[in-house]
Amino acid sequence: MVLLALLAGGLAFFSRALRVNDGYYKNRPFLEDDREYDVLIFGTSHIINGVLPMQLWKEYGITSYNLGIHGGSMAASYWMTRNAFDHHKPKIAVMDTFLAHAQYTEMETALAHAVLDPFPMTETKAQAILDIFPDSKDRMEMFFPLDVFHNRWKDLDTQMLRRGAGLETPDTTQKGGEIRASVCRNTDPILVPADDYPQDSNTIALQYLEKFIRFCQEEDVIPVVAYIPFQDGNSEEYQRYSNAALRLARELGAAAINLQHMDLIDQDTDWYDNVGHLNPLGAKKVTRALGDYLMENYDLEDHSDDAGWAEDYEAYDAYLAETLAASEDLWEILSILGIEDFRARVEISEDFRMNDQAQKLLDAMGDRLETLRVPAGGGWTLIVYGKDGAEVTRRQWWI
Predict the structure, then answer these.
(1) Which structural domain, as residue segments, surrounds residue 356?
(2) Are 347 and 320 contacting, i.e. CB atoms less than 8 angstroms apart?
(3) 223 pLDDT exceeds 50?
(4) In sequence order, which residues have a C-beta less than 8 Å from that of residue 71 and are 6 or more positions away?
(5) Which SS3 state, helix, strand or coil, does residue 391 take?
């Protein structure tokens, strides 16, 4: 019995130490917190980076959690919904339309570990693994992840050992959303008309979208299908299938919101990269549009006075302040300043011509920005202040 106890303890220790921790960091608060959420958010990385739960609470009093999946198929998002409802059943479930063109269920196992490993093994999780992964090797890897992580022995460090002992368990402050802080200037995309659908739109992905909608309806949860703005090399095809996803949602009696056609995004300031992920400034606009839609169409309780959420927001604000203080990257700093209540002062040399893109990002701060002209001979200095008026960071630039 002692030997079995030592063996079980050792397996538990190394399972924690060697695991890929991204999913635990992102979703553990959802699994371990006993609070309820009015809105749960599902989909791909586009919705992870595009909808910020802490902003939904700050501006609307909406309690939400973002359970989007990096590289997730529609099938994986459907099964994430079912796993999530086993723990918290919301009033509204929002699903992203990206990858609606896909003719597959599977996703990369490396990314799938981050999604499924934090969830306890239940009948729902077992069904998800069997349905998403047709290959028996992939299935075994998902059922027994420690067997895959054995090759990480050489990477063991103090942080991993502390995690194995249960001492190093940081959690996200973003309620599952993730800001991608930088700025990529993109060209104006070709916008496919909202009524332009592919001839054959019976894809495997859309079959799982239908399953998502019907499952929500059976559970008395309102399904909302959201077309999050994106652009990339396959944008026109992806847009047509996103249009088909919205059409399917309406046919099934679900709500559908087309954020791609709301003219929300500034091509100069709101993208993180050139494959369609939004930065914090773009996410702020999309989150606000979604929040407006939810408040106008549904009777959601205002949780603005919830002390627990207020405490969580303070932790979120502190995380952003720490990120700003540590950053040496102008575009990271400017994109974060667009979303939160930081104030800033810009001191610009009289003979200096500001980069137009940087100026546009500064202007996005509105009345939270003070601009001063200083004697010639330098570039410009950005000083950022927190809500308490204390200086968060000070950087000088020549861009």
Answers:
(1) 309-397
(2) no
(3) yes
(4) 44, 45, 107, 108, 111
(5) strand
